[in-house]
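Aim 2 progress update. The chain analyzed this quarter is reproduced below.
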Amino acid sequence: MYSRLALRPALQCRALQPISVRSTTTASAAKESDERDLVNFPRPVRLEYPGKVRLGFIPDEWFQLFYKKTGVTGPYVFGTGLITYLCSKEIYVMEHEFYSGISLFLMAIYAAKKFGPAIAAYTDKEIDAVEADYNSSRIEAKKALSEAIEEEKKEQWRAEGQSMLFEAKKENVGLQLEAAYRERIMNVYTQVKRRLDYQVERENIMRRISQKNLVSWVVSGVMKSITPQQEKESLQKCIVDLKALAARA
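Predicted structure tokens:
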């Protein structure tokens, strides 16, 4: 019970510490655990309830210390001998205060037996309420931090999506540039082809006109060089040739 009462100011002091200090302490403890032998030298833990006692107030560790040297009866023999020595030598005088102390001791034992469980239950309930209040704030802080971590993960996921979107946009821009480049190349090809076709058609027309003029000049020259007599003889010869062909057929 008294240890739980002593736990209250310790919990209050710990609750007043900022979160950053607690996290630093935890980080240092985690760092120290790699270097410290926690198996052979564990960390001390505050006990919630007192240890085992003998005769109502003597710690059990004292009896265990005597057991190694004197056995089971050693502590009792030592206590009886020490009390006998102090009383026989009048080092401890049994005056009226001694009997008053015995009365007060018996009253304290009765009060502890009678009212101790009720007081312990009440104080335990109060301490549990205070501890639950402190733990609720800690749990709320952990919940808020967990939600913040989840939100941060979502933001990181969104940031990764944005990077993928940027890559897709960059690829789309590249495709648009490639399409514009191909369109301009096709336009250049069309324009060059039209001009080349124009030159080819122009050369063909010039050649046909030259040929036509040349044929006209040759025909006119030939016609001018033929006399009427030659034309008549040529016509007669053609008629004879046609008759000969007709006879053969």
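Strands lie at 53-54, 58-59. Residues 1-30 have pLDDT under 50 and may be disordered. These observations will guide the mutagenesis experiments scheduled for the next reporting period.
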